[in-house]
Structure formats: C-alpha cells, structure tokens
Inverse folding.
C-alpha cells in the first residue's frame, strides 16, 4: 500500500530530470475520440480482439475439409489443444458439448492477452478487470445453474458443503470453508488471477522499456548507458516470458472454467 | 485495502473497480464470440473431425479387409501349390513304377525272344545235321558201291542187293566205330 501511495504521488509530482518508474497511470484510458466517453483504448482492443477471433475461427472452421489445409490446420491445432488439455480431463464424455464455450473463452482470453505485446497496440485487455469479470461471472452463473439443474437445489449445496465419508465434527469446519471457497472465493480468484497477471506483466514491460528509453535516449550518460542496455535486453527477454504467461493464463482460465462446469455436472470429484 | 482504494480512487483509476462501459462492451464482445465461434463454428469443426475419424476408421477397416482377403488368397495359393506338388510327386512315382514295369516286361520279352531264337537255331542245326547225315549216308552208299564195283569189276546193278550190302557195310562200320570208341 505504501508503495502504491508513493508511486501515485511520484507520478504526479515527478520532476523533469528524475527517472520515474511507470505506475498506475499506465492503465488510465482516456477516450480516443473526445466526447465519446466509452470509446477508450481497452474498449477498442476488446472489439478488435472479438473481430480477430471471429474472423480467424470463421476462416478456419466455416467450411471444414476432411483433409485440412492452411488455416484450418492452425485452427484445428487450437481446437485439439482445448479439447485434449482443457475439456476432456475435466468433462470426460461431456467434453464435446462444452467445447464451443471453452474454445471461445480460450481464444478470447488469449487474444486479449496477446494485445499486450503486439507492437503499437501494446495493451493487455485483461489488465482492465471488467473484462475478466465478464467471463468469470458468466462461468459463475453457469456453474450454479448447472449444479442446481443436475444435482437438485438441495443436492448441489449438500454435495458441495457436506461431501460424504468424513467424521461428523469435520463438517463444522469444512462446510463454511467449502461454501466460501466455492461460491465467493472461486469466482473472485478466477477473474483476479487473469487480471493481476496481465496487470503486473504490463507494468514490468513498461518499466524495462522506460529504463531503456530513458537512459539511452532521454538522458544519455556514460554511466547510464549500461543500464539502458540492460533495460532493452530485459524488455526483449520479458516480452518472451510475457507471451508464455499470456498463453498460460488463457489456458488456466479455460481450464478452471472446465473444472467448475465439470464439478457442477457431477458431484463426485 | 479500503484506504488504498480510497487513495487510488482519488487518482481516478482504481484497477480493481470495473468501468461500467467496459463491462457492457465485454459482455457484448464475449457474446459475439460465443455465438459465432461457440454456437456456429464449433459444431462444424466437430462434424468435420467426426467425419474424418469415420473416414480413417473406414480406411483402416477397408485395409484390414483387403489384407484378410490377400491372406486368404495366399493361403489358397499355398494349398493349391501343395496339392500340385503332391500330384506331381504321385505322378512321378507312378511313372517310375510304370517305367520299371515296362523295363521288366521288355527284359522278359527279350529273354523269351532270345530263348526262342536259340531254340529255333538249335532245331535248325539239328535238322541240318540230320539232313546232312541222310545225304551223307546216301552219298557214301553210292560212292562205296561205285568204288566197290570198280574194284570188284562186277556191276552191282541190283538195287535191292546193293542196298542191303551197303546197309550191312554201314552197320559194320558203325559197329566198328562204336567198338573203337
């Protein structure tokens, strides 16, 4: 909290000659067209991501051939990955029915995240928490709906809070924990995990690229030049690492969605 | 946490508070993707994948059938070849047997023929000998009488007597011969 306050005050009171690390102002999104308040950079990128996902999937899957060619191969690679790594381990024979949703989530989140390293755009959509919240809330509502539908309104909560086969006193401890973890913490962490990763990754990339820019262009000094080179090298290295994290978070987000859906479909897990 | 949030809110950008318009755009963007990718496109690729699996399985089945058929044909050929070999062996044995039989028959026949020729030759020789003896006997008789007639000077014209004399002479001659032997 202290750091945040310092950062926040630093951002406003920075003098021209002192190196100031980037802070929360990175995530300020003023309207791109003055007067249209809602049309900000993350909104533009979210719409762009939707277009990219839809156009890519359309060109890959709209007219699928028995022997795949070109972009269909790439699309099928994505489909197979989601099916074999995300859907089947958690949903088993129900996997195919939920592939549409899981594939949408995976591609959507991945493209959102990739926006963070695409030159010029360079802003991960999921670093604005509203977007992860939309997906996590959708999964949360779906999870409760499916749980009540498949296990009954009482059975769902009973299976969740009172898993059979434990000594009675344990339930005093377990029931509240399970309730809290399943219905309050799970959706929160589902959204925040993705948000926080993209948020931190963006700050790290911005920090290192600013170090490079500041010490090599703004204030080039013999002593500072070395630091500037380190900043550039680290920017490149962290961009690579960030791309890995972006993929991992998209995979994890889809995987958790599959897990929640699977848990609601079948009580025994 | 509350303090931080208040502080940050003062700056105008609390990263943990969602912007309303972003929520709306997010819902909209996600809905479009779910409808287009999830509802329209995913069933298509699933259908294509199912068809491909079916095609591959069909191909494998076909290949298996073809292989089984090839195996059956090969087995049939092997059986036929085996039968042909046995037939050939049987024919060879038969031929060898027949050959041996024919050879034995021919040998037998040749032996019989030889025997016959030898017997005929013997008979011929015997006949010739008898004939020669008879001729010789007549010739000797005539020569002897001629000789004796000339020596004695007396014509022994009388056939009957002549013959008797010759026979007697010859018998004596033979007896002498037998006695000498």
């Amino acid at each position: 909290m202290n750091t945040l306050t310092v950062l926040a005050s630093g951002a406003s009171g920075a003098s021209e000659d002192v190196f100031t690390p980037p802070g929360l102002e990175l995530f300020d999104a003023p309207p791109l067209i003055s007067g249209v308040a809602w049309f900000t950079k993350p909104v533009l990128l979210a719409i762009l991501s939707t277009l990219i996902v839809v156009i890519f999937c359309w060109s890959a899957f709209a007219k699928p051939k028995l022997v795949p060619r070109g972009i269909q191969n790439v699309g099928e690679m994505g489909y197979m990955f989601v099916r074999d790594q995300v859907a089947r381990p958690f949903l088993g024979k129900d996997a195919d029915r939920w592939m549409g949703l899981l594939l949408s989530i995976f591609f959507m989140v991945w493209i959102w995240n990739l926006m963070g390293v695409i030159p010029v755009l360079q802003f991960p959509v999921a670093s604005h928490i509203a977007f992860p919240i939309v997906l996590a809330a959708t999964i949360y509502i779906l999870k409760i709906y499916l749980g009540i539908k498949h296990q009954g309104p009482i059975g769902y909560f009973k299976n969740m809070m009172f898993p059979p086969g434990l000594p009675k006193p344990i339930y005093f401890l377990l029931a509240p924990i399970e309730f809290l973890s399943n219905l309050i913490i799970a959706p929160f962490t589902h959204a925040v995990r993705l948000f926080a990763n993209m948020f931190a990754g963006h700050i790290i990339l911005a920090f290192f690229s600013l170090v490079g820019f500041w010490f090599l262009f703004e204030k080039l000094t013999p002593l500072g030049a070395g630091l500037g080179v380190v900043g550039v090298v680290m920017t490149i290295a962290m961009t690579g690492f960030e791309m890995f994290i972006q993929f991992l978070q998209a995979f994890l987000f889809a995987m958790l969605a599959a897990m929640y859906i699977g848990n609601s479909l079948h009580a025994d897990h | 946490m509350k303090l931080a949030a208040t502080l940050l809110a003062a700056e105008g950008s609390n990263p943990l508070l969602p912007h309303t318009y972003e929520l709306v755009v997010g819902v909209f963007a996600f809905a479009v993707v779910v409808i287009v990718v999830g509802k329209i496109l995913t069933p298509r690729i699933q259908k294509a994948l199912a068809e491909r699996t079916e095609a591959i399985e069909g191909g494998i089945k076909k290949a298996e059938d073809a292989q089984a058929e090839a195996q059956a044909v090969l087995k049939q050929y092997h059986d036929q070849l085996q039968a042909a070999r046995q037939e050939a062996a049987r024919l060879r044995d038969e031929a060898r047997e027949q050959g041996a039989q024919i050879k034995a028959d021919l040998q037998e026949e040749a032996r019989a023929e030889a025997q016959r020729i030898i017997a005929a030759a013997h008979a011929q020789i015997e006949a010739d000998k008898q004939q020669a003896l008879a001729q010789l006997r007549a010739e000797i008789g005539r020569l002897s009488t001629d000789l004796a007639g000339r020596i004695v000077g007396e014509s022994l014209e009388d056939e009957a007597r002549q013959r008797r004399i010759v026979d007697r002479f010859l018998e004596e001659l033979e007896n002498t011969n037998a006695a000498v032997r």
In short: Chain B has a mean pLDDT of 85. The CA atoms of residues 8 and 113 of chain B lie 141 Å apart. Helices of chain B lie at 2-11, 20-152, 159-180.
